[in-house]
Amino acid sequence: MADSRAADVVIVGAGLAGLAAARRLTAEGVDCVVLEARDRVGGRTLNHSIGDGKIVEVGGQWVGPTQTRVLELMRELGLESFPTYSQGEHVIEYRGELNRYTGTIPRMSKRLLADFGQAQWKLDRMARKVPAEAPWTAPKAHEWDSQTLWSWMRRNVYTQGARDALSLAVEAVWAAQPEDLSLLHVLFYISSAGGLDALWDTEGGAQDARVVGGSQLISIRMAEEIGDRVVLDAPVRRISYEPDSVTVHADELEVQARRAIVAIPPTLTCRIAYDPPMPALRDQLTQRIPQGAVIKCMAMYERPFWRERGLTGQATSIEGPVKLTFDNSPPDGSPGVLLGFLEGNQARVLGAWSPDRRRAAVIDCFSRLFGPEAQSPLDYVDKSWADEQWTRGCYGCYMPTGAWTAYGPQLREPVGPIHWAGAETATVWSGYMDGAVRSGDSAAAAVAASLVARSERFATA
Ligand SMILES: Cc1cc2nc3c(=O)[nH]c(=O)nc-3n(C[C@H](O)[C@H](O)[C@H](O)COP(=O)(O)OP(=O)(O)OC[C@H]3O[C@@H](n4cnc5c(N)ncnc54)[C@H](O)[C@@H]3O)c2cc1C
Question: What's the predicted TM-score (pTM) here?
Answer without folding.
Answer: 0.97
